[in-house]
User: What shape does this take?
Amino acid sequence: VDLIIKNAKIFVQDRVIESCLAINDGKIVAIGVESKMPRSDSVLKGNGKLVIPGLIDVHVHFRDPGFTHKEDFKTGTAAAAAGGVTTIIDEPNNIPPTYDITALKEKMKIAEKKAVIDYSFSYGLNTNNLDDIEQVHSMGISSFDIFTGGFSDQLSIKNPGIILEALSKVKEIGAITCLTCGDSMLNNYTTEKMKNKGRRDINAYSEASLTVSEGLGVARNLLLANSISSKLHLRQITNRNALNVLKKLKNNNKVTSEVSPFYLFLNTKNIEKLGPFGKVGPSIKPKKEMEATWFAFVNGEIDIIATDHAPHTREEKEQGKEDIWKAPPGLPCIESMLPLLLTQVNKGRIGIKRIIEATSELPAKIFGLYPKKGTIQIGSDADLTLVDLNAKGIIEGKSSHSKIDWTPFEGFRFLGRPVTTLVRGVKVFDDFDIIGSPGYGKFVPSMNIR
Ligand code: DOR
Assistant: This one.
C-alpha cells in the first residue's frame, strides 16, 4: 500500500486506540495492530500522536474571485491545512457573487487550479435565483446560504415568504438551507440611533447589536422551517436569547446550528482592546453570553463549530480606528481554531470526542459528505490530522499562512496543535510548512442529505 501510519493513537468508532493505519489510493484500507498491516515502502511514524479525522470547515470566506488582496484559494486552503482542516465549504459573497451558475463555474475553475485541500461551495440565494437550485444541486452542491441582513438586496432575502419558498425548493431536492440569524430592520434601527448619537467606538457597534435581534431571527427561521418540516442550518449562534429560542422551537432533528470561535473565546472586554480588529457580524458579546454559548457548544445544543474565516487587510480594518462604522466586519481564524479547542481539551473543559464530532463528523453528515469525509473508517478518504497535545505556543498573526498577518487571538497561549495534515493520504502540511501543491485539492460533490 502507499503509506502506513505506525505507533499512533487513532480515533476510531468513538474512542482512541493505539494502532496503525494503512492508506492506498487515497483511502483508508486497514486499521489495526502492526503485525496485521499490509506491506508498504512508506511509513509515517506517529510517535504516539493523536490521529483525528481532518476538520471540515463549512463556513469560510476565501475571497476568490473579487477580493484576492485579502485571501485567495491558494492562501486560504494553505492556512486551512495548517489548521488541520482538510475540506472547506466556501461562502458566496464574492465579486461576482456566487449567485448565478456562470459565477459558480468560474469559481470552480479558480479553486481547481489553486486549492491545496478539498473543497465545495455554498450557493447564495436571493429573490431572483431560486430556479437555479436544482441545477446547482445537480453539479454536486448541497449548501444554500440565505443572508437575511448586513448585505445588499442582491445578496440577501428579507421577505419571509421568499425564504419559505427557498426552504421548500431546497427541501424538495434533498439539500440544506443555511440561514444567518438576526433581524435586519431592528439592526438597522439600533445602528442608526447609535450613529445619530455620535458614537463611533467599538462598544457602540456591540451595543447596537441586540441579543433579541438574534432571538427574533432564530424564531423566524425556525418557525418557517418547522411549518414545512424542512431541514435548516442556523449560522452563528452567539447568545442566550438565541439559545433559548432554539431550545424551545427546535422540535425535530432537522434543525442544526453552528458557532464560530470568536463567540467562544472573545468577549466585549477583548474587543475594547482590539477595536476594529474585533469587529465581526454578528458582534462579539459580553462574557456571560460567551460562557453560555460555550456551555451550549460543549453539551451539543449547538451542533458544530465552523471558523467563519473572513479576512480583511490591516489597512481596511484600521479605517475603523477613529470611526468603527468605517471598518469592514469579519475576522480570520482558520489556523487558530484547532489550537484554541485543543487547549480547552487539555484544561478538561471539553472532551476530544466532542471536538471531533463538532469539527468533522457532524459537518460531514449535515452537508452530505459522510462517510467519504468526517470519519476514520475503512473505505473513507484518508483525510487525517495528526495532533500533538503537548505542543505549546503563542498564537501570532505574523506566522500565519493566510494573506492576513493579524489575528484577533494575538498572544493567546495554546497547548495542543495540529502537526501534520494529510488529504487523501498525501501530506499537505508538516510541522510548520505547507507542502501540498496548489491544484491538488479536489471538488467534493455532496451526496443527498434528505
Ligand atoms: O463579519 C462578517 N464578515 N460576517 C459575515 O457573515 C461575512 C463576513 C465577511 O465576508 O467579511
About this structure: The CA atoms of residues 269 and 435 lie 38 Å apart. Residues 61, 93, 280-281, 310, 328-330 surround DOR (CB under 6 Å).
